[in-house]
């Protein structure tokens, strides 16, 4: 496994996690306030 492949996997997972997390946080935050 090359470093570039690891970086690509990491960046893809990072984007996926953010895309999943942001709507959840935005949807959940109003209930906290």
Automatic annotation (TrEMBL):
<keyword id="KW-0560">Oxidoreductase</keyword>
<dbReference type="GO" id="GO:0008912">
    <property type="term" value="F:lactaldehyde reductase activity"/>
</dbReference>
<protein>
    <submittedName>
        <fullName>Lactaldehyde reductase</fullName>
        <ecNumber>1.1.1.77</ecNumber>
    </submittedName>
</protein>
